[in-house]
Structure of N-ethylmaleimide reductase:
Amino acid sequence: MTGFFAPYRMGGLTLPNRLVMAPMSRARVAADGLATASTAAYYAQRATAGLIVGEGVQPSLQGQSNPFTPGLHNDEQVAAWRPVTGAVHANGGRIFAQLMHGGRVGHPEVAGYTPVAPSAVRLDAELFTGPEGMLPAPVPRALSTAEVPDEAAVFGDAARRAIDAGFDGVELHGANGYLIGQFLSSNVNLRTDRYGGSVNGRIRFAVEAVEAAVDAVGADRVGIRLSPGNRIWDAIEEDVPALYGALLGALAPLGLAYVHLLATTDDDTLMGLRKAWPGTLIMNPVAPSDPVPATREQGERWLANGADLVSYGRAYIANPDLVERFRAGLPLATADRETWYTGGDDGYITYPAHRY
């Protein structure tokens, strides 16, 4: 079995190990979605990962979901990211930007826009809006058929800006019930045009968004993250094996850098998707709803089952040197959950490497 510490060739990059830092929102950026010096320190501390996938970045102001999150839709944001990517590269790392369009998981108090979605189906939840606190999610505005291609195109625009900002590539966030996942969903996507109804209709937006990014920066710089069968933000999917088999079949000819799967469905379905996908597969061993972070053993099991790379999220919060801790069999530190989204440097860049 190939272990964590063997190098791997992914597109134009040689990764020194098989460990990926998964994307995690930390809600730490400055006003107007600008990355900061602390953002640069945070990612540079974790640059020993084979690949870093950065936190979700809104590809447009319309697509912003959470407050205090970064963007890649104007020149100022591009300039703010360059010291971050530069710091990662100076420390020997590689970093992709995750492009995350919230769709209906958004609020006018955050972005100033009514959120858009495949259909005008309200999310039955309260959303954190910043100074206004928790507020009920609004009814989103359904995109017209003519508008949908334009919304897919923002992923291409943001991908160009990401490369200009020094990122090595981009990952489209197709997981966890955000806009791409909303189109895949059978209870959020009630459309009867070419973007809804059948499996081929429901996967169309995802494919067009990926194609926009590929056209902008090249296939070897584009990946996508997916969570088959996940019900986060109440986006329910029917016929999961057929839906995701069709999606991977449509994406396969594009020659993407990777597909990044979360373990949000049964092993048989995930193994079927592994067999269906001809390219690089990143596997995240646990679902976001799992109360326990993924273990080394769970990651090794997926390497044995055919994953090329394994991603870890929560383990990277308190263990910036996770690669070395796994290599040397060192104990893992536990993150303080109370500081995940509190802003400032505490619980962000204050976790040290292991002290021998």
In short: Residues 199-217 form the longest helix (19 residues). The two ends are 30 Å apart (CA to CA). The chain has eleven helices and 14 strands. The domain at 8-339 is CATH 3.20.20.70 (TIM Barrel).
